[in-house]
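Morning. Coffee machine broken again, so started the prediction first thing and wrote up yesterday's gels while waiting. Chain of 279 residues, entered below exactly as on the submission form.
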Amino acid sequence: GKTTLLQRLYNISREGEFRNWFNTLWIDWEKEREHYIGLQVDHDAIDPATMLEAIYHKFVKQEEWKDYFQEYSETQSILKVTIEKIKQAEEEQERTNQPVRLDLTKDESDVYRNSDEKLAEALGAGIAQIADKKPLLIFFDTYELVDRIECDRVLRKVMKHRGGQVVWVIAGRSNLADNIWRNEPAKEALIAALADNDPDIVAVAIRALGRLNALEVPQLIRFLNLNQSKDRYVREAAARQLGYMANDPIDIAKVLEAVEPLIDAMRNDYMKPVREAAS
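Came back before lunch.
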């Protein structure tokens, strides 16, 4: 179905009257998993940086495109140096049992604090430069393998640099129209509401984010914990969203990790006798 259609679109863009009209890039995420250990993990554990790295390497395999990604390469280098500095400082502090001053430059500090965003901006800038020379078509197949919320959010930042010369053609099992990226301020406000002291606000935020497919299983598991969530409506909202996820065959494997916390919450919920007495 979707792969056949995507492949046909890819071929059309490279043959007949369209030959040499476009630059094209094809990424099948199922095949990319074979080359990156970081993609061979649970869906919700994929690091956005690994996804960006895979895209970057696809581009620089084309010799004529390498020079467009110097900013990305420099950002990578700054990040690696910063991580090594932090590691050395931690080791020194552990060895001496004394506070160690971490001497980072402004660039190092900025890149480390916002590494995904900085890498996405640099990657997007390189892609935009390629597209300035000739329109660029980027094809993603089996995108559902890497479409966790954080990865998708970072990819959207790459896309913001596209200008008018880049078209992304994405095939996956999830409905991209349901993604909350369309209203970033709303997403940020609802996510912030998850930490509110008012349990009613937290419960409403869980339900709203759930409808927008903007919650992940580990987040919901945290709200099942009786010590973490004192209010039963919060726990019930989290459990209900997990139930909705279980109805989606794509997400069933992820939901299975919530079975034990759900059972534990049901067995130990101190509100249960009150609910039973009231019913």
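The chain is about 55% helix and 5% strand. Going to sketch it on the whiteboard this afternoon.
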